[in-house]
């Protein structure tokens, strides 16, 4: 429910819907690359003019909207910004309050070892660890669900030592991706997918066999 999200944030970040409004957090799992992105690129090769992943997600969510012709469905993407330069929604908070993934933050560590350093939080999924992404929010403004019970996210990094290790790796060594394997995972990105996301955005078109003109 939108109210679960608004309850944990300052008013400046609230979503402008009644508290009982139904919302879905959309995650992409490791298999998205082969099952969605590559087929999309092969089919829409000439129409790709911005980030291929963003366009692929947008394409699939527009198809979801088509399944509900009688409903208003609002979509917010993780990369969208308001004119104030604030994100349209805080993806990791949304994932946590929906029960999709646990958002580990500095406040989850009792004996904080970082002093005045800025420490960002990170979401971990009980099945995919850090090998997933939060892509969008689907909102159904005309559907109110006062009866919906809030599920707690799975606390899968549940020792102080592991949480410190996670936040250390994410904040200071994120490039090597070790934080993604903080728990034992059921599935992770393929080598091809790792290479794709490790490549600077401007060079990803070449990896997918797209011409630079398309960009």
Topology:
Layout: H1 2-7, E1 21-28, H2 32-44, H3 52-66, E2 74-77, H4 91-97, E3 102-104, E4 122-124, E5 133-144, H5 160-172, H6 191-198, H7 201-207
Main traits of this protein?
flavoprotein; two-stranded antiparallel ribbon; alpha+beta; about 220 residues; FMN; 5 strands; 7 helices; Cyanocobalamin reductase / alkylcobalamin dealkylase; cobalamin binding
Description:
This protein has 215 residues and is of the alpha+beta class. It has one domain. Helices cover 32% and strands 14% of the residues. It has seven helices and five strands, in the order αβααβαβββααα. The chain has helices at residues 2-7, 32-44, 52-66, 91-97, 160-172, 191-198, 201-207, and strands at 21-28, 74-77, 102-104, 122-124, 133-144. Strands 1-5-2 form a three-stranded antiparallel sheet, sandwiched between helices. A two-stranded antiparallel ribbon has the order 3-4. The radius of gyration is 18 Å and the shape is globular. The model has no long low-confidence stretch (mean pLDDT 94). It is found in: Cytoplasm. It holds the Pfam family MMACHC. Belongs to the MMACHC family.
